[in-house]
Structure formats: C-alpha cells, structure tokens
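Subject: mismatched residue count in predicted assembly?

I count 331 residues in my input, but I want to confirm that the predicted structure covers every chain. Input:
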Amino acid sequence: MAMSVLICDDSNMARKQMKKSLPDEWDVEVSFANDGAEAMEVIRSGGVDLMFLDLTMPVMDGFEVLEMIKKEGHKTLVLVVSADIQPQAVERVKKMHALEFVQKPVDKEKVTNVLRQYGLL
Amino acid sequence: MNPHIEFSEDQRDCLQEVCNIAMGQAGNSLARLFERFVTLSVPAIGFVSAENVETELQELMGSLMVSAVRQAFFSTHGKEGLHGEAIVVFSDTNFEKLVQLADYHEGPSNAAIEQELLLDISNVLSGACLNGIAEQLEEQLGFSAPSLIGTNIPLAGILDHEQLTWEQAMSIKIGYRLEEIEFQCDMLLLLPKIAVEHLKNTLDFLLEDD
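Triage response: the counts match. Full output below for your records.
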C-alpha cells in the first residue's frame, strides 16, 4: 500500500516546493495542511505515515505539533523542514522525536538523501 | 496617480516565504551573539501611507516607548532595484541584562555601551536578513551605516512623515524574541512603491519557475 505523506507549511509556495522535491516515482499519497492545527486533524483522522513539518506557522507551530503527536501517541514519523537554522532548534526538535531536520530551501537531492538515510525509500 | 499598491496573494505568499528563510538566517546570527535561543514568528507584510504613518505604525507595533536604529539599503543594480529602509525597533527590553549577556563592558558610560549594543544588534539583524532576502531574489545590496534614532522615545517619533520620500510603502515586520530574557525586537522593512514594483517582477519570475 502506498505510504501516506502529509506536507504541513503555512506557505503555499513552500508546500509546492516540498511536493516537487519528493523523489520521482515514489509511491506515496500526498496531502497538505496550512498549519499545525490542520495537520493534527489529518493525523487524528488516521494514518499519516510521514509528515514534512514547518516550524514557524500561525495558529499552531511545529514545536507544538511535535509535542501533541507525542502526547497523543501517534505513530507518524516527522521530518522537520525549516528556515529556523539555529543549532538549538535542531537539537530541540530531535529531542521531541523528529526524525531529522531539513534546512529550507529544500530540493530533490536533500530530500532523497534524508529519506534514504532513514530507509524510507 | 493611484497611490494604491497592488499585490497578489501569490506574490504575498512568495515574499513571505522568502522573508521566512531570511529571518531564519538572521535569527541564527542573533542566537550566536547572545548564546540564547531566538523565538521566531511569522513575518507580517502590509502597507503604510506617509499621511497616516504614525497611526499605522502604532497599530503594527503596539508598544509605546521604544529604542530604534535605522539603516538604508539600496540595490547595487541601480536606483530602481530593491531599496528602502530597515528600522530595528526595541521594546520591552532589559538592556542591562543584555549588555551582560553580550559581554560588552568597555565604554565611557552605560548609555554609550547600550547604544553600541543597539547598533551592533541592528547591524547583525539587518545585514543577515536583508542579504538573505537579496540572495534569494538574486540582487546585491549596499547599506548605509546604522544610525540611532533614539533610546526610550515614543514610537510615533521614529518616523517623521514630513521627511519621508515616499507616499506609499510596503512594510514587512519580522520579530525576534530571546528566550528567558526581556527582549523584543522587531525589524521593520519599508519599501517605497517604486521598489515594490520592481520586487513584484522578481517575485513573478520566482513564481513562474515553480
């Protein structure tokens, strides 16, 4: 069965760029969320295998999403995709069980490498 | 002449993401200066008119008493390129603590040390953020030296509308907070209408590329 992938970013352009950076011929079903609250709804309604998560967002930011996923015990794997490149931001999201931190702007090579690294490809 | 600036939703979204990436770079520079985590928020894009600039500024920034530093930036490609003014506005900031953190202790007086720190923070933020924006837009910027507008002055006093060279401008507000310390600093970019027209073409080009 195709893996279900959720892209969560408040910018339409960033969501498009993220989708374009997914490897070609990767058998996944992609859905989108505009902010953390929307992403949580999608996750609760069931079966998001992997999420690409922005950090700086209105309504509910990426840190809060990570906290909530942990609290509610969802199995969703999270790759954080952010422009917040402070070493402390990277450290924090990893402590909050994000798999990896990908620096914006993203491209196909960066995303493919990180997916390979975690055996998702 | 229609003073109104047209800006599409796609252009706004694209500019916001460009600012977001630049803000991340500037935030990282600030974090290194103070060895503290910097909390970032979503950049706010709006428009101001010279006529109502004091009221609009008040609505945008909220605080009453501020310290502020200004710095002009211009495109090395010519006067119709990206240009404007960056104003770094400090509010609710505990300067004593900040001076300690940054380990600034040599100066003729506390006020002089505080001013030096204000100028340095502004320089770090404007430089990193504007260069980050310019890089993505494939422009090159030059900067004037930062100058202090004032410390602990009323917000309305940071811009004198009689001295403004534009009627309409785009405002981009980018906020930085330091964790565990009273520090609120907002970078306000003001781009005159003529610079916005240029910016729109560049953004359209980026969007086409999509």
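Chain A touches chain B through 23 residues (CB under 8 Å). Marking this ticket as 'not a bug'.
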